Amino acid sequence: MLKLKRAFLDGWLQFKAIFLYLLLGIAFGSLVYGFVPTELIAQYASGDSPLAVPIAAVIGIPLYVRAEALIPLSAVLVTKGMGLGAIMALIIGGAGASLTEVILLKSMFRMPMIIAFLTVILGMAVSAGYLFQFVL
């Protein structure tokens, strides 16, 4: 019984740690759903646009959003007409790097290493986005 109680407590602590980020993601997704015109997303980020994936990857990299918050935001972007490949690129870019992470890495590494890191993240986000877009 002690192990079950400890497992429940650990699960509760993990839930509390991500709850705020999840709530922020839902709130941000609601704002996007309510105020961003569908035509704007369909024009620049639909599955038909060839630049949708790289644009989404570039937007995702400096975006300081945790992966837990990107899930509800992605659901809203799908309903607005954003292509699945672009959403995948946004998620990978956002989860792979953020502006605060780059600032922290800058304090430890030289600029060529930072550029290599960002290039790899951008390359993986774009590659996965196009792969996801063309496979599905």
Task: Walk me through the structure.
This protein has helices at residues 2-35, 38-45, 52-60, 67-80, 84-96, 99-106, 111-135. The chain has one domain (2-135). α1 (2-35) packs parallel to α4 (67-80) and α3 runs parallel beside α5. The protein is globular, with a radius of gyration of 17 Å. The chain is mainly alpha-helical. The chain is 82% helix and 0% strand.
Keywords:
single chain, 136 residues, mainly alpha, 82% helix
How many H/I helical runs?
A: 7
State the helical fraction.
over 70%
What radius of gyration results from the CA coordinates? 17 Å
Secondary-structure element string: HHHHHHH
Distance between the termini: 46 Å
Low-confidence stretches: none
**How would you state the average pLDDT, rounded?**
82
The amount of beta strand, in percent, is under 5%
**Structural class by helix and strand composition:** mainly alpha
Q: How many separate domains make up the residues?
A: 1
What characterizes the major β-sheet? Answer: none
Which of globular, elongated, flat, extended, rod-shaped describes the shape? Answer: globular
- In total, the number of strands is 0
Task: Give a quick rundown of the structure.
By secondary structure, this protein is mostly helical.
Topology, element by element:
Layout: H1 2-35, H2 38-45, H3 52-60, H4 67-80, H5 84-96, H6 99-106, H7 111-135
Helix pairs in contact: 1-4, 3-5, 3-7, 4-5, 5-7
